[in-house]
Structures are given as C-alpha cells and as structure tokens.
Amino acid sequence: MIIKNVRILGGDPVDLRLHDGLIAEIGPGLTGAGETVDGGGAVALPGLVDLHTHLREPGREDAETVQTGTQSAARGGYTAVHAMANTSPVADTAGVVEQVWRLGREHGHCDVQPVGAVTVGLEGRQLAELGAMADSAARVRVFSDDGKCVSDAVLMRRALEYVKAFDGVVAQHAQEPRLTEGAQMNEGVVSGRLGLTGWPAVAEEAIIARDCLLAAHVGSRLHVCHVSTAGSVEIIRWAKSKGWNVTAEVTPHHLLLTDDLVEDSPVGAYNPIYKVNPPLRTRADVEALRAALADGTIDVVATDHAPHPVEDKETEWSAAAMGMVGLETALSVVQEAMVDTGLLDWAGVADRMSAAPARIGRLPGHGQPLEVGAPANLTLYDPSGRTPVDPAAFASKSRNTPYEGMTLPGRVVATFLRGRATVLEGKLT
Ligand SMILES: [Zn+2]
User: Fold this and answer.
1) Tens digit of pLDDT for each residue in 94-153?
2) Catalytic residue selected from 304, 345, 351, 382
C-alpha cells in the first residue's frame, strides 16, 4: 500500500510505502503496485497509545465491549490501549487478563494490553497474583487498582517491590479515601456556592507525595494516573528532580475543562456529564497541567475513557456515575489545549500520546518513530477546520462526552495497525 502526501510530524509532504506490516519506504513521488491512499496533506503521527482505557468487558457490556471500545480507539487514532482492571470479574488473575487480551486479538481494531489489579478484587487488602499476570500470555506490566486508590502504604510498598522483578510499574489512582468520602466535585469556590461535598486537591497530592517517597525508597517505578492539580505537578516535578523513577499522565478533559461547568455550561447547570473522578478543577490547575505536559513533568496524555450507559449518567448529580468517554475526541482536545496554544508541536504530541505511553507500558511495536523499518502503526490527522462534537457518531457504545454542544478542531482521517487500515476517511474499515 502507498499513502500519498502526508506530513510526518507536520513536516514536508512525503509518500509512505507500507509492506509486511512495516514502513518500507519514505520519499517523494512513490509509485508501485497495490492500493493507494491519498493522505491529503494530513499530519502523520505514530499510532496513539492509551495508558488508561476502561473497556468494561467482562461485566458491563451494556456500557462498552472490547469490540466497541477498540473501534472507538481506532476512530480516535489509537493503535493500542491499556485496558483497566476494574471489570467484573476484576482483572486480578492470569485467567481474566488473558481473556481480555484474547478478546483484543479477536477483534483487532487496535492492540489491547490488559492492566492487572494490584489487590485482589480491588479491595485493598491483599496483593493480587502480580507475577502470574506478568508471566501470562497477556504479559502484564502495568498494575493498577484504578477507580480505587491503593491507600494502604504497606500494600503499596509491597506492590512497588514486587513489580521490580519483571520491570513492571504500579499506576496509582491517587485519592486519599477518608478525605474524599461522599465527594461530588472539586472542593473550592464553586462547590461552596453549590453546596456539593468537595474533593480537595490535598487528597490527591498527599497520596502522590507518599507514593513518590515509597517508590524512591524501594527503587521502583511509579506511574501517577490522571494528575489534576497544580500542587500535584509541583510534587512530581520535585520527585523527578531527585532522579526518581516517577511518571505521570493527564487526561484531555483536565487540560480543557474547569469546575465552573458544573454551575454554568452549554448543557445547563448540575449536568452530570461533567462528573468525573478526579473532578474537573480550576483554571489555575488547567494552566499548571498544560505547562507540565509541555515541559515533560507530565509524560503522557491518557484518556481515562470511562463509558457509562445513559441511565447511569442522565440522573441527578449526586446519583450519577463518574466518568467521561474520551478516545474519539482526545487528539482534537489536545490540539485545542496544547497545539493551537503553541505549547506543543506535533513531535511533542507524538511523544506524549504515543512514544511515552508505549515506553511506560513496555509495549513493544508501538510508539516508534515513523522511519523505514518501523512497524506501520500510524495515524493520519487533519488539524484544519472545527466541527460540532456529535456523540451519535461515536463508535463507543456510550455517549457520555463532556464536549456535546462544543466544537473541536481537527479530525482523524485514517489509522493503520501493522500496515492494515482500521479507519479510512474517518470511518471504520
Ligand atoms: Zn482513576
């Protein structure tokens, strides 16, 4: 296959020849036998890699399945996703992670790398079979109780020690449970005005500080999920300055949206579409997160794609589920927050959304530069134009997007997984 007229990382137009799942040739004026795709001058990026996706299967197939979730990922330009462990049953054994891994291989819209639970049943009492999951066919390297915090310091220490044996990483959902009991939104001026129980920044920052110290103490790798506050950024910056092995991610929604939306938004007040964990924070937090992503303090953009069926979201605020879908809008949101603001160029986007997450997740074959001989995992993205977000067009089974009623720039034109198109002209193949 030949892809005509694409701009690698936004550079000069070239053509690509894909053969046997690899990039076989790069240059102007390529011709030859086989299918030809017109890239139309799109930006070519290495296929995106998500460190934090909820695929919901097994157990909540009414919200998402491996099939629909990976279709959603492909439409968003992703060639690999890490599937979080908070399924039912929980992915806390070799059997469950292999089941998720096999479903990913069968559906094939993108690679599915299961994340293993840190504790049995996400209950925070007893370590799960981390070694068995690492040794399984799914070769798990990322472990997380995401959705819940590993709040017990001794268990967290043991997990960090254990994963060293197979170069694993513990990805922490940093939320001090006692400080966030009944929390409904960011603790601040808006929560005070609305009378909703607040989720204070310190509940995130205290756990991150503790875990950075623990990771340094045992010489292990820590990854911090969905960083949401300016204070967290300062702590991570400090830990990195010490040379500690700490990485961090930020979600697209925390780079763009603020807690004011709970009070006043295009879809009204108290709309649970904005209810998410960790919560949307303040403008000052958003600015700090953008700066941290730009300077590398935060390594990765991860979606925290969290599909929920209508009945779990279209209810009163206090009863609604927390979370937003994000795979199909992530690149557009990053363009809006980071590229159009001059904070990141396309090389920076490729690093934060492909190379860095593949490196942290120890995912071979992904996140590599678009060079001759590299796996043909790539995304073609047209950054021109703005369109209204249309949840009805999502491939995801769920529609809980916070961008309804807004416009976003750009669109994913095509996605290729090992040389095979999973998306062409914006549509699933
Ligand atoms: Zn989480």
Assistant:
1) 999 999 999 999 987 999 999 999 999 999 999 999 999 999 999 999 999 999 999 999
2) 304
Please tell me the distance from the alpha carbon of residue 196 to that of residue 191, in angstroms, as a whole number: 5
Residue 15 a catalytic site member: no
- Ligand 1 centre from 53 Cα, in Å? 10
Q: Collect residues with CB below 5 Å from ion ligand 1.
A: 146, 173
125: exposed, middle or buried (Cβ count in 10 Å: 0-12, 13-18, 19+): exposed
Whether the full predicted model's pTM is greater than 0.90, yes or no, is yes
Q: Are 307 and 69 in contact (CB under 8 A)?
A: yes
Query: Are residues 133 and 99 in contact, defined by beta-carbon separation less than 8 angstroms?
Result: no
Would you say 378 and 353 are in contact if contact means Cβ atoms under 8 Å apart? no
What is the CA(116)–ligand 1 centre distance, in A?
14
Report the DSSP pairing between strands 36-46 and 378-388: antiparallel
What backbone torsions phi and psi does residue 319 show, to the nearest 5 degrees?
-90, -10
Report percent pLDDT > 90 for the chain. Answer: 98
Per-residue pLDDT of 318-332, as tens digits, reads 999 999 999 999 999
For ligand 1, the distance from its centroid to the CA atom of residue 307, given in whole angstroms, is 13
